[in-house]
Amino acid sequence: MSTLPRCPQCNSEYTYEDGAQFVCPECAHEWPRVAAAAEETARVWRDAHGNVLQDGDSVTVIKDLKVKGSSAVVKVGTKVRNIRLVDGDHDIDCKIDGIGAMQLKTEFVKKA
Predict the structure, then answer these.
(1) Averaged pLDDT of the chain
(2) What region holds the Protein YjdM C-terminal domain (predicted)?
């Protein structure tokens, strides 16, 4: 099985490498290898149920979460609006009413 990407124009599986680009022998389409690598590495964040998350979405907490360094708890059903997705250990930067700025993991939220 070839690890080369399919042609983005005609979806042919017979692509080949030619220097710094890929070439499709069926439709003669050429595209840079860098663009193909960028498509493969694009990160997609998903909630606990598999829904795709985007910046600005609203999410709901699905589990009681203890706030580190405090006696406060983020309760189940707490709605968080206008999230920002970031790379790292915790995927979501947000502000929660009554608690303040927080970082959450996507595995503990669902899209609202």
Answers:
(1) 89
(2) 46-112
